[in-house]
Write a structure and sequence with these properties.
By secondary structure, the chain is an alpha/beta fold. It has twelve helices and 13 strands. 43% of the residues lie in helices and 18% in strands. Bound molecules: beta-D-glucopyranose (BGC).
């Protein structure tokens, strides 16, 4: 009896140990599939998109991310966006992207701060099997799965042509642009310079505001007011810079003497255009861009071919699929047919200060 009981106990202990061993081994080697939660090891059963954004300093980005998230939900009601805002700091952006890779999101969408500095983290994402979309700004030497943007050279061309059409009697302009780290800046300038060259206009000075900080552009302008005597116009890298530039000019009693152009169709800029204190702005239908990006995100997540037709753009090392939309020049004459007709801004808001 005793011997049998002892044997049974031994068997029970052996079984228990074996089960424990199996359990421990299983836990230790749980395969981590893309989408696995790094803590629980479980793959979320719905699509998770990692969205890394430079910052919300500029008006347009809220619209970009809101519409992206709304369109994604419309296409897949379960889908979720894990949004990370780097507040303009490159190291923070890199850390946030690494965190999203660790979270094993299904697709990464990035508005980069510095077009030249993300190839390493994009390589990490790609080796973790996560497709990457460069949203609005190209990420260089990174072989992203898609670069989706507006035709930025055309943005510059439209700015230049509007100034030429408005008249530049002294044939001299100044440029107060965004940072060189943003690849869009050089593309816009290429388009702008082309029109200036074709029309024999001299670009007398150019400044690049670090991190798109409009106050830095305005400070630079304040220090160079004495050089503005025969400058006909200032090409502002965006409408936010234009806002600060116009304020600086009016404080120096130079408002109206110097023609201003910008981009983004910010509400204040559209108001200035109809009021006559800004020649034009470039309207970029970001709602279309964000919706197309959401559509492509779903396709990449499902390993499907992109349904949108793409061109190729060199990122310095690779030709990457490039999907682009056309920007639209907006002046007083077509404000109603563009910005207002599309619902980008409401007529009452744009014409708020205009009395008939
Ligand atoms: C975009 C502009 C924007 C700027 C600052 C650029 O890359 O093309 O639309 O105003 O970044 O955020």
């Amino acid at each position: 009896m005793k011997i049998v009981a002892k044997k049974n106990i031994k068997r029970i202990v052996a079984c228990f140990l074996a089960v424990m061993m199996l359990f421990v081994t299983a836990c230790g080697s749980a395969p981590k599939e893309p989408g696995d939660d790094p803590v629980t090891g479980e793959k979320p059963d719905h699509l998770v998109v990692g969205f890394s954004i430079d910052s919300y300093l500029i008006e347009r980005w809220q619209r970009d991310t809101d519409i992206f998230a709304a369109k994604l939900k419309e296409l897949d009601s379960e889908a979720e966006v894990n949004l990370q805002n780097a507040n303009g700091d490159l190291e923070t952006q890199k850390e946030q992207i690494k965190y999203l890779i660790e979270k094993r999101v299904d697709v990464l969408v990035i508005v980069c701060i510095d077009s030249d500095s993300l190839s390493d983290v994009v390589a990490e994402a790609k080796s973790a099997g996560i497709p990457v979309i460069a949203y609005d700004r190209l990420i260089k030497n990174a072989d992203v799965d898609l670069y989706i943007s507006f035709d930025n050279e055309m943005v510059g061309q439209l700015m230049g042509q509007s100034l030429v059409d408005a008249g530049l009697p002294n044939k001299k302009v100044m440029m107060l642009s965004g940072p060189n780290e943003d690849n869009n800046v050089s593309l816009v300038e290429t388009g702008f310079k082309r029109v200036m060259d074709e029309n024999g206009i001299e670009i007398v000075d150019a400044y690049h505001a670090p991190g798109w900080k409009a106050e830095d552009a305005a400070a630079y302008l304040s220090e160079h007011l004495n050089e503005l005597d025969d400058v006909d116009a200032i090409m502002c890298g965006n409408d936010n810079i234009a806002t600060k530039v116009i304020k600086t000019l009016s404080e120096a009693r130079l408002a109206g003497k110097i023609k201003i152009v910008g981009q983004d169709a910010d509400l204040e800029a559209c108001q200035r255009v109809v009021e006559g204190t800004q020649v034009m702005t470039v309207y970029k239908p970001v709602e279309k861009l964000a919706q197309a990006a959401a559509q492509c995100t779903i396709e990449l997540a499902n390993n499907n071919e992109l349904s949108t037709e793409t061109d190729a753009m060199s990122d310095g090392s690779y030709d990457v699929p490039y999907y682009f939309l056309d920007p639209i020049a907006v002046t007083k004459d077509n404000m109603d047919d563009t910005v207002i007709a599309s619902g980008f801004h409401m007529k009452e808001e744009v014409y708020m200060n205009v009395t008939n």
